[in-house]
Amino acid sequence: MKEKAKIAFQTFDDAEIHYTLDGSVPDVQSPLYTDTIQVDKDVIIQAIAVRPQGTSQISKEEIHFNAATMKPVTLNTIPHKSYTFKGGSTLIDGLYGDMNYRSGRWIVSTGTDMNVTLDLLEPKEVSSVFVNTMLNTGDAIFGTTGLKVEVSEDGKKELKMQSRKDSVSFDKVKARYIKIIAEVTPKLPAWHSMPGEKAFLFVDEIGVE
Predict the structure, then answer these.
(1) Rounded to whole angstroms, how far apart are CA atoms 138 and 198?
(2) DSSP 8-state secondary structure symbol assigned to residue 185
(3) How many Å apart are CA 101 and CA 89, to the nearest integer?
(4) What is the pLDDT of residues 36-62, one digit of tens each?
(5) Residue of 75, 101, 110, 109 whose CA lies nearest to 89
(6) Alpha-carbon distance values, 71 to 25, 67, 90, 208 (Å)
(7) How many CB atoms sit inside 10 A of residue 40's CB?
(8) What is the Cα–Cα distance from 22 to 18, expressed in whole angstroms?
(9) pTM value?
(10) 175 by DSSP, 3-state: which?
């Protein structure tokens, strides 16, 4: 079953909204927004509000789909209290983050590896897993030092893989449950302005293909 993302637009004054989903620039001839839009594939959403004095600037968003998108996810470790936001669903909503730490799109671990379990709802053939991270060493934000993955078709028998990078590729296997452990940098290196302190691991999205 392929899950769908629901897209809703809103303006402060109920202005007319026109949108596109293919990356093209919207204008007054573009589809008129009347109700929630559902998508199940990668889209570039752009929208404008139309008012008597003219059209607004373009609002733009991208949604990225993979086998994990919109699927149930469980956080097995507690995120940093200042960066919990929507919890585990932040990691499978199809939305990537930017350099705004408070955007609500990042889940953060510090001192403890990030550990999550995905339920794909039914067994699927998979061959890769990734985590998308931020890197800003000046602010003590480091990427993952390694990735451990456990896949299971029935929740019992597990196949384990690991990588020293932020992605793992393997021969195709059938899996429904996938545990992902993103390893944090244990402490800031000697060259850092805060040597020995805990590093942050920012993750905005996890993916399965």
Answers:
(1) 13
(2) P
(3) 17
(4) 999 999 999 999 999 999 999 999 999
(5) 75
(6) 31, 8, 11, 11
(7) 13
(8) 13
(9) 0.90
(10) strand
Give, in degrees to the nearest 5, the angle at Cα 143 between 187 and 170.
120
Closest CA to 132 of 64, 41, 45: 64
Would you mind telling me the total number of residues written for the chain in this entry?
Answer: 209
pLDDT in tens, 94-153: 999 999 988 999 999 999 999 999 999 999 999 999 999 999 999 999 999 999 999 999
Residue 36 confidence (pLDDT): 96
Say how far apart CA 187 and CA 197 lie, in whole Å: 5
What is the per-residue pLDDT for 1? Answer: 60
Two tokens at 133? Answer: 């991270």
Q: Which two tokens stand for residue 154?
A: 């029935």
Residue 8 to residue 35: CA distance in whole angstroms: 7
Q: What is the pLDDT of residue 208?
A: 97
Say how far apart CA 209 and CA 206 lie, in whole Å. Answer: 10
Q: Which residue has the tokens 């953060």?
A: 108
Straight-line distance from the first to the last Cα atom of the chain, in angstroms, rounded to the nearest whole number: 15
Rounded to 5 degrees, what angle do the CA atoms 3, 7, 9 make? Answer: 170
